[in-house]
């Protein structure tokens, strides 16, 4: 399958809303599924598998509404090799612009003996019967022999030949338990394509789990072997260790196009926003070192790396994070950072330091960095302010008090200094939760219409003296701004992070307004 340029096109089949949702605790409601489906369509996936229609009324409703609302994307109904499942999937997807039925049936001995309690002959007959039944209603029928990588060629070939004869159009050969090695998985497809009668009349799909950390590598091996569809999830979510990660696969193909010679319809600029939405809705935090979308994926603390990046980004980065929709914050300031990175970071905030001021900042910075893992921007600005003997942030959060408990309402009191006006005021706020109360109090101090967008909380140490880290994202107009803070009191960390995000939003908005005014004066 090639596009108009003659390059082989890999179709991205997204199963975040089905296989991804099977991860413990990742359940989504109908409205969440619909929002995510729209985001997946914007991302450029070719096929969406929105759920397992017969599993619950909510899943049926989600698949049905997504089939009606999402245009330009194939919608896939998921079913066991059972007539009731097939009927449910067909009904749920009947209004889709384009649709597919995805049917699965176990094929390995261990599944047949202990789960299905069927013989191989019974499985072949059932596969034939159900594929034939599905073809009465839908043209595109995908068949998956579950646990294919532990099945063995002889029986795998027999099952695949049977479903081809009955009209299956796509053969998905899944590594259901993440057992295969890349060379094994790719070679299996090669053998199937050469040895299965009728294989030239169907397309092939790969579906890999990540139990041994090789889901992406196995999927790439399948692509090299000739598959045209790859089944993935955003952030690699899914049962056990998850599925092949959409963003990792897409960017491996994009970054190493010289090696693979294939393309996808994925829009890289939509990756980060989609990843964040999936993480929030599923309540599944993204590991800091997660490739592509992890917090540390494009951040650097080592002084040597920071110096190289400031001179040329390509010295230590093989992808442009801004192309992926990721806010650029590549320099993380810690005890390994050097003077060059410090000068560069404060310059980004419009602060120019002479050599004496830089040395004073560097000394104070190193002392602070030795006490904590990372020096955040608002802390750096406080240190830089001491070096230049003036406050650099619009506002300073001097004191936070939050009254919490198991009642219905929380109250927060925040003492905030307006550094430009030179005045200090105590603001009180309330809310159903302590963070909401603190945000309400701080918001009263700031005239700009800043909206609270997101909160991430992490533990950065263990034991009774552990500290928590909070990252808050706010929105001012169309722009997003982030602030991060660490504190032994996680509620104080959240308040400080919110204050830091607000300061950044106010500072950048005023800077942009000043530049606009200057241009108008010149004109």
From TrEMBL:
Q: What is its EC number?
A: 2.3.3.13
InterPro entries listed in its UniProt record? 2-IPM_HCS-like, 2-isopropylmalate_synth_dimer, AIPM/Hcit_synth_CS, Aldolase_TIM, LeuA/HCS_post-cat, LeuA_allosteric_dom_sf, LeuA_bact_synth, PYR_CT
PROSITE patterns xrefs:
AIPM_HOMOCIT_SYNTH_1 (PS00815), AIPM_HOMOCIT_SYNTH_2 (PS00816), PYR_CT (PS50991)
EC class of the enzyme, as a word = transferase
Q: Name one Pfam family in it.
A: HCS_D2
Pathway it acts in?
Amino-acid biosynthesis; L-leucine biosynthesis; L-leucine from 3-methyl-2-oxobutanoate: step 1/4
Superkingdom as given in the UniProt entry: Bacteria
Q: What residue stretches are annotated with the Pyruvate carboxyltransferase domain?
A: 10-272
Which sequence ranges form a coiled-coil region, renumbered to this chain?
Answer: none
Looking up SMART domains in the UniProt record yields: LeuA_dimer
UniProt KW keywords: Amino-acid biosynthesis, Branched-chain amino acid biosynthesis, Leucine biosynthesis, Manganese, Metal-binding, Transferase
UniProt entry tagged with the keyword Transferase? yes
Q: Which CDD domains match?
A: DRE_TIM_IPMS
Q: Which family does it belong to?
A: Belongs to the alpha-IPM synthase/homocitrate synthase family. LeuA type 1 subfamily.
Protein name from the UniProt record: 2-isopropylmalate synthase
Q: Give the gene that encodes this protein.
A: leuA
């Amino acid at each position: 399958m090639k596009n108009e340029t003659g390059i082989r096109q890999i179709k991205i089949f997204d199963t975040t809303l089905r296989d991804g949702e099977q991860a413990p605790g990742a359940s989504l409601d109908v409205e969440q599924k619909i929002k995510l489906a729209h985001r997946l369509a914007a991302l450029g996936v070719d096929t969406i598998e929105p759920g397992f229609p017969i599993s619950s009324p909510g899943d049926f409703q989600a698949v049905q509404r997504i089939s009606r609302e999402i245009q330009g994307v194939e919608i896939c109904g998921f079913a066991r090799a059972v007539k009731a499942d097939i009927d449910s999937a067909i009904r749920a997807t009947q209004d889709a612009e384009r649709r597919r039925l995805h049917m699965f049936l176990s094929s390995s001995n261990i599944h047949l003996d202990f789960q299905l309690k069927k013989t191989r002959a019974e499985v072949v007959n059932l596969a034939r019967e159900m594929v034939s039944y599905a073809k009465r209603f839908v043209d595109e029928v995908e068949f998956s022999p579950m646990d294919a990588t532990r099945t063995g060629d002889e029986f795998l070939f027999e099952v695949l030949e049977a479903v081809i004869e009955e009209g299956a159009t796509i053969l998905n050969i899944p590594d259901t338990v993440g057992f295969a090695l890349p060379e094994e998985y790719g070679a299996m497809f090669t053998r199937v394509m050469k040895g299965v009668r009728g294989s030239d009349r169907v397309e092939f799909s790969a579906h890999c789990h990540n139990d041994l950390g090789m889901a992406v590598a196995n999927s790439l091996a399948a692509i090299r072997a000739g598959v045209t569809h790859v089944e993935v999830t955003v952030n690699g979510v899914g049962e056990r260790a998850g599925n092949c990660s959409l963003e990792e696969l897409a960017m491996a193909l994009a970054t190493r196009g010289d090696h693979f010679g294939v393309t996808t319809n994925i829009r890289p600029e939509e990756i980060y926003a989609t990843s964040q939405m999936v993480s929030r809705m599923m309540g599944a935090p993204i590991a800091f070192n997660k490739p592509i979308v992890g917090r540390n994926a494009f951040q650097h603390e080592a002084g040597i790396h920071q110096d190289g990046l400031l001179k040329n980004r390509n010295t230590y980065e093989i992808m442009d994070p801004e192309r992926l929709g990721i806010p650029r914050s590549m320099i993380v300031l810690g005890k390994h950072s050097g003077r060059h990175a410090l000068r560069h970071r404060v310059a980004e905030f419009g602060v120019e330091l002479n050599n004496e001021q830089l040395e004073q900042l560097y000394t104070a910075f190193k002392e602070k960095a030795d006490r904590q893992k990372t020096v955040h921007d608002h802390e750096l600005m406080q240190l830089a302010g001491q070096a230049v003997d003036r406050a650099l942030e619009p506002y300073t959060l001097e004191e936070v008090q939050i009254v919490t408990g198991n009642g219905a309402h929380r109250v927060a009191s925040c003492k905030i200094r307006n550094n430009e006006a030179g005045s200090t005021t105590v603001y009180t706020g309330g809310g159903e939760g302590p963070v909401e109360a603190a945000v309400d109090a701080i918001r009263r101090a700031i005239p700009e219409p800043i909206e609270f967008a997101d909160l991430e909380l992490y533990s950065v140490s263990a034991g009774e003296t552990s500290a928590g880290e909070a990252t808050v994202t706010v929105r001012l107009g169309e722009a997003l701004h982030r602030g991060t803070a660490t504190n032994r009191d996680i509620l104080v960390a959240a308040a400080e992070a919110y204050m830091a995000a607000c300061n950044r939003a106010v500072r950048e908005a005023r800077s942009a307004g000043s530049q606009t005014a200057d241009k108008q004066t010149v004109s």
